[in-house]
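Recap from last week: sequence in, structure out.
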Amino acid sequence: MKRTDFRHLEPLRVRWAEIDAQGIVFNGHYLTYLDTAVSGYWRALAIPYADTMKQLGGDLYVRRATLDYRGSARYDDRLDIGIRAREFGNSSMKVDGAIFHGEQMLVQAEMVYVFADPATQSPIHLPDALRGLMHDFEAGQPVVDVVLGGWGELGEAATAIRREVFVKEQHIPADMEWDAADASCLHALARNRFGLPLATGRLLEHVPGVAKIGRMAVLRAMRGGQVGRLVLGALMAEAKQQGYREVLLHAQLSAENFYLRAGFQRRGEPFEEAGIGHVEMVRAL
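Predicted structure tokens:
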């Protein structure tokens, strides 16, 4: 197998605690690496794992894992772990894994997962919706849908996401989170294949010729994937369509690198909003 055989590659860096007396990664840690990459695979599919399995009425259990060791990773190596799903049965599926250091494959793995009743761990039918999602993802199809609309259409779902992220997680007072601008803004909402809202943001005019993006929020389980980038891209495309020459936003300092990767530049010094450090960032359209 080659790196190009995998649509999902999870980056990982070897830690000191993972090497053995031979100075190489202890063989058992490779299973942990693969399990970490499987978690990233669910994120790439845009499904919060625990909530999705509960919705589907089952859970996935490893029935068999086979590893073929071909090389060794060492301390501080940067690895990429490839994961792909294939060969779906009635209640099971095979998952290929491969651990790469650069182009060299160090470990090849085959894992069999069984979809089962959590109470009895008895196999049950692998849901067609989950099977179809993985098949489409592996075929390069999009797994997230971003829609634009008004508050009346998208406000309920956007409110739930913003309450979870800003009010519950970041402890921003609720009376600071909601404002009159929501009613007139254009809102974006990302949903996965099961219709679950994952992320939101809004667009409004800052000054003539300059649009402002705000209230960007992504559910914790989906961060590090592409969901936030899709919402941002949809809002920026709409701003350009409306004739704006520049888009501005106030980025939380913890999210600055996310916006830098999207082509934004910092303008001015950091400041506080709602007790959280921010910086103004801009990008020409």
